[in-house]
Amino acid sequence: MPRLWLINQFANTPELPGHTRQYEVAAGLVLYGWQVAVFASDFNLTQRRYRRLRFPRLWSTECPAGIHWTWLWVSPYRRNNWKRQLNMLSFCIHLAVRLGPAALLGRLTRRAPDVILASSPQLPAAFTCLWIARLTGIPFVLDVRSLLPHVLVDHGGKIPHSPMVRLLAWMERQLYRHAHTVVVLAKGAEAYVRERGARRTAWLPNGPDLEFFAPRPVPAENGLFTVLYAGAHGDANALENVLAAARLLEQQQSPVRIRFVGDGPEKQTLMQLATDLQSVAFEPPVAKAEIPALMAEADAILLSLRDVPLFRYGVSPNKLYDAYAIGRPVITTVAGAINAEVEEYRLGVTAPPGDPEALAAAILRLMHTPRAERQAMGQRAIELAHTTYSRQRINAQYTALLRGVMDL
What we know:
The chain is of the alpha/beta class. It is 42% helix and 17% strand.
């Protein structure tokens, strides 16, 4: 039985808010006969709190869906300051102390993993795993969720030649050059990672579990058009643009309601900006298991991102593909590949990022689209989810890739 170590500081199980790609990949590989061990931080990125551990307890294990899942204690933080750097460093120390000796001993006892798979965006953790793999001769695969550090420059305002950015860029190059395979979630990112040294690449996007995200009936018409945004409330999501569009819609007395479900560093600021808006509602984050029912209540699903150059080809948003799978038309403000896909397959409406007038007009256009055509948009989205983004399809490709890594 092949063995895999899968490492991502921000991995979650389905009852927790946040992304669950690592859980879904691991659960799929277990069904294909793998022994999978996942190592993640117990400090939840979305909620900024511990879920299971209290210091001095440093780890706990459980076995969801047959996965050997280890939660590791890390130092806490609230804002993106030095405490976040300490948070990442503490996770790396945990990996070095726990996985390094285990890998060395495993090589002697033939119990080492056959492959180590690490996932960004936490580059220092992936870099730590790379060196554990190199020192023990275990094949290493990198799963790229975010194109750090360049997104920090394009979006975060970091200085390109600052010591931190230069260090992260060096780690990025080492990871690309020494990984057996670099897995990218966004198709356009393949050229990006190859330019920076990746020898082999594979496109394995995010995607819905089709048994979980099954088509849902559209809501009954009640005179109100409900748009759902479910996800992070951060600067990258540009939700102030959505609020500006909501204000324009209210001024036109349009029967549109926008629900914001989730959490993030900008949520309180956004709630203050929206105190005079009657058409928006802010709600707490929900577990992944509750997302299908939540989406089923909406007439359309909104995906919003800021106009960052890397976002034009370097994103693979889970919520978009989840919306496809349950059969809802989408509203997207992501320039480049995402908007192009929605327009090409006629899955909803698009607007340029940072343009509230265009977003308001797009929402109205979709609201006034005949119900039968909106249902046809949802049906086309379901078909695309099945043919391209199915989690079952992606997991089959993942196990084939990893077995190929083992055979070399």
